[in-house]
Structures are given as C-alpha cells and as structure tokens.
Amino acid sequence: xxxxxxxxxxxxDDFLSGQELSEMLGVSRTAVWKAIGxxxxxxxxxxxxTNKGYRLVAVPDADLLNAYEIERRLTTKWVGHTLYYxxxxxxTNDDVMQLSNEGAEEGTLVVSSQQTKGKGRRGRSWSSPAGxxxxxxxxxxPKIAPDLAPMSTLIMALSVYDALKSYAKGREDxxxxxxxxxxxxxxxxxxxxxxxVGILTEMRMEDTQIKDVTIGIGLNLxxxxxxxxxxDKATTLSVALGQEINRAEITAMCWNCxxxxxxxxMQAKSIKPLKDRYNAALVNRGRKVLVLxxxxxYTGVAQGIExxxxxTVIRDxxxxxxxxxxxxxxxxxxxxxx
Length: 338
Ligand code: BTN
Known about the structure:
Low-confidence stretches: none
Shape: elongated
Helix content: 25-40%
Radius of gyration: 22 Å
Number of helices: 9
Largest sheet: 7 strands, mixed
Bound molecules: biotin
Strand order of the largest sheet: 3-4-5-9-8-7-6
Oligomer: single chain
Order of helices and strands: HHHEEHEHEEHEEEEHHHEEEEE
C-alpha cells in the first residue's frame, strides 16, 4: 500500500488528491491518509495542501531501502516481481524456503536490512548487523539435473561482479574480483583483496528432482561484519569506494544483471557461455592456492573453471591437474586473502 502510494506520487506531475489516490488503489481515504503518515515517519517529504492533495517533495536519503525503492529500479522480466522487504528477519534464505513451501512463484525475492540468524557456508554464521547492509535471497525452481544446480552460485557471483563494476564505473583505483567459487572481493590502490560479499545456495530435493534452489547473498555495503578475527580479511563497499552506498540501487543492479546471465545458463544447460567472463573475474587465476582436500592438503596454481564449474589446479608436487568441485574442498590463497 505505502509502495503503491509512493509509486503514484512519484509518477504524478502535480498534486494527487486523497480521493484520486483512494480510487486508484481501491482503498478508503482514511487508509491513504494513514499510509501517507507512515511514509512521512520514514522520512519521505510529502506536501499536503487543502483542496489540492499530496505531492512528493523529496525522498529521505540516498541509502533508503524498501520494496518501492528496489522495485522502481528493477528492469527484470520475472526476478523480484514478488518482493518482500523485511527490516529485520531471521534468515532470508529460511524465509524464501518457507515461502516456497507455501507455493511461492519462481523469482520471489526477500530482502532484509538485518538478520538475527544469518547463515554462512560450511555451517558458519553470517554476521548481519543493521545499519547499511543488504541480505537477500531468491527462489528458483530450475528444471535441470541436480548436479547442475551449484552453477547458479557461480552465476550469482558473476552477476554481483557485473553489478559492482557498473556501480563503480570510472573508479580505476578499485578492482573487484571473484574468489572461487563465490566470494566477492575488492582491492583498492593495489592493496590486498578483501571480502565483502558472500553467497550461500541451498538446494532441496523432492525424490530425484530439484524442489527448489535458494540463492542468498550478504553484501557488506555500509557496515562491516561484527565477527572477531576478520579485521584484515573483510571490508565494506563503502570503505573501498570512500562513499555511502545506495543499497536499493546495488540490490536492483544485482538482479538486473542476474536474470539474463541465468537465462543464458538455463538455455545452454551449462555454464559454458559464461565461463570466459567468470574466469576473467576470477582473482585466483594464475595464483598459488592451498587446497584443503580432506584426503590431503596440497598447493598448486589455479587455472580457472571448466564447463562443469570445477576449478582446475596444477599441483606443485607432481604437476598433475586436479579438478575441484564447489562445496567439496576449500581453497585458500597462499599470499594474503586470495
Ligand atoms: C558465506 O559464508 O560467504 C555465505 C554468506 C551468505 C549470507 C547470506 S545473507 C542472505 C542469505 N541469508 C542467509 O542466512 N545467508 C545468506
């Protein structure tokens, strides 16, 4: 309701009367008046003039995150067309899975400003404080073989990378990259790469078929993680760019980039058409890595991903080529974070 009123006011050239708004939205004038009051509380400057109605004068600040601010920036055909914004939640991945159980459509998106039970990869938690970050998850129902599903994580990483590049266009001093398989890292003025985005994909099965895939992304934009020991490994986009980040813009850009990339993958049923772009963004490429294989650790030089999404590494000890699947084995940089 608030979002619809905002949309109507921002599209109007002149004042819109309470009567016009109530007819447009099919609600009472009291409901319109109440929603306008709430919008004012959120910081929207709305002028109210007797016999004329309401006019949107200014939006509160560049960093405002709500459904309307995201929706008006989305150019997608199906991603995020059902969108839930929650100021605070447990975990947006859990929310999406719950919505999926209730029959939510593919493309349903949940966005939040704070999580109390944020989940990270490998059973870790994801620090999700309030105050300037984005935590969001998307529902997918791909009709593909289950072993292809982990690719959606790589596609998401590539899409966030695309979005960040275009957000920071012109900033030659800031270099973004993907740390295999799906961490987004940034380096400023040649400093070591630091992580500020994590992606967690969860797949559920129904017999032998995929029931759903939930892709969750945590973007540390304006506030760092509240986890000890990460000080020299983690950063925020705001620190990297030296400016406050517009969260609604980044959020929409991620999905605007994701949809065409994902459709390309679904059409080919392979990551092949996106592989070269992914490898070009991969910071591990050509670098020494430590592979934490449960069968025995080894070092080697990462080459890039294959059509299967696996990372190839040439071992230092025997010169053999190894292929590493996402999820099985952890890869660490030998020098610095990557
Ligand atoms: C990682 O460990 O790097 C992955 C972190 C993924 C965090 C995001 S925040 C939104 C979504 N909801 C969760 O509970 N986790 C993911």
